[in-house]
Amino acid sequence: MKAGYFQTHPEFGEVNRNIEQVAARLGSVDCDLLVLPEFAFTGYQFIGLEEVIELSERVPDGPTTQACIEFARRYRMHVVAGLPEKAGPHCYNSAIVVGPSGFLGCYRKTHLFCEETLFFSPGDSGFKVWDVGPARIGVMICFDWYYPESARTLALQGADILCHPSNLVLPHCPDAMVTRSLENRIFSITANRVGQEARGDKPPLTFIGKSEVVSPAGRILARASADTPELTVVEIDVNEARNKSINPYNELLKDRRPGHYCS
Amino acid sequence: MKAGYFQTHPEFGEVNRNIEQVAARLGSVDCDLLVLPEFAFTGYQFIGLEEVIELSERVPDGPTTQACIEFARRYRMHVVAGLPEKAGPHCYNSAIVVGPSGFLGCYRKTHLFCEETLFFSPGDSGFKVWDVGPARIGVMICFDWYYPESARTLALQGADILCHPSNLVLPHCPDAMVTRSLENRIFSITANRVGQEARGDKPPLTFIGKSEVVSPAGRILARASADTPELTVVEIDVNEARNKSINPYNELLKDRRPGHYCS
Questions:
Q1: Domain that holds residue B163
Q2: Dihedral through CA B89, CA B91, CA B95, CA B100, nearest 10?
Q3: Cβ distance of A262 and B115 shorter than 8 Å
Q4: Residue A88 burial by CB count (10 A; 0-12/13-18/19+): exposed, middle or buried?
Q5: Inter-chain touch B178–A172, beta carbons under 8 Å
Q6: Cβ neighbours of B115 in A, within 8 Å
Q7: pLDDT at B263 over 90
Q8: For residues A47 and A51, what is the distance between their CA atoms, to the nearest angstrom?
Q9: Contact B139, B163 (CB under 8 A)
Q10: Is pTM beyond 0.90 here?
Q11: Could you tell me the CATH number of the domain that includes residue A254?
């Protein structure tokens, strides 16, 4: 199957324009599964709760989810994209999964990073896996990478591909995702954004780009630049992620010894 | 405190000579904690069970443990070193912890790699932590790195330093240990060996060297070459590993959400 990332450069608060820019690019792409960044259409650096509430949307009824369903249908691809979700009294840092058949589901970020803790509720969805044609995909968002339990939980649920919408500002994640793929023998697609935000009197954030696709053997199949928008799709064989054999004597998941692990 | 690795090049089966070579080098070293490789004095590539039984020793009564106690006393340092351990009907891939006060304990490798599964019993000790003066150390052996649960379990038990005797032949571990340190905010000391073994009619093994010390912030404080014996000691402040704050909003271990993890 053809899977990849769209490393974008959204303009803060310009949701419609950011959606249009993504949609306009998709018509020329042959792709089965595309991962977009965390907060793909809103931007990241919220300066207060009011702004968060204003830019958060219901899922799946809100316009962003509906727009994603629309272009997933039109271009016959599955899309994973981050957005601020409004649900009752809560806002969540969420990612939706949509496809040609419509809305598939939503993941709410488990491990909130830094000032996100001021504005968003800790995710209550848990880690989930969806069937998207030939592959089972699991979703984790940005800082979830820091906790190996995130990727492991998705692998134990049978994910073939980690879809990882991100807004990375720290340097370690691109290399760490090689370890995440390897230790779970699973594909990973990290979709990061580029550009800077320095809103209100907040210190500037520089997003580090380097979106990537990593194979279950820990090979970097594609890695984007640090500062330029980029849509990259690679051909992957999901069966590679289903073969958990490391060598004739070691089966990755079967050889776990949970009785010796602290949880 | 001063902590480091001794990247060695043992000759297979020449236990006494390998011990003497290590001991001879220690007199000139100012060190509080030194990590030696997996199977530090026997070599790695056993060709049959008889050989394993012949080279395995009781712990702590066997000559290798006694020799390590002797040089730990003489040079007033703690030493972690791998050896094949004989215990009743079993042989284990083990690592001993010894210090100026004598024998402290033994860890038996939890995740056996490749043909080790033919000759050794899976470790039954579980992951353990020892106080060695200013630091608490945890021990894991070589392929244990592949399973993030190993380092996590030691961190949750309060380890400041992962002591990681290894005989690495695959390329990924040195970079992955940066992730292991970072995701646990813990020091790690990987002591690998160098050289080749091609015993009996077995395919040759090339050990990749690159022993290293990594800080809790994921900084490589020292990394050895791929092919040369090397003893390196660095000054570390264990308090760095006790500060689990990532930023003013995130505390690494407190922010775990075990209710959402599969174990």
A1: 2-260
A2: 40
A3: no
A4: exposed
A5: yes
A6: 249
A7: no
A8: 7
A9: yes
A10: yes
A11: 3.60.110.10
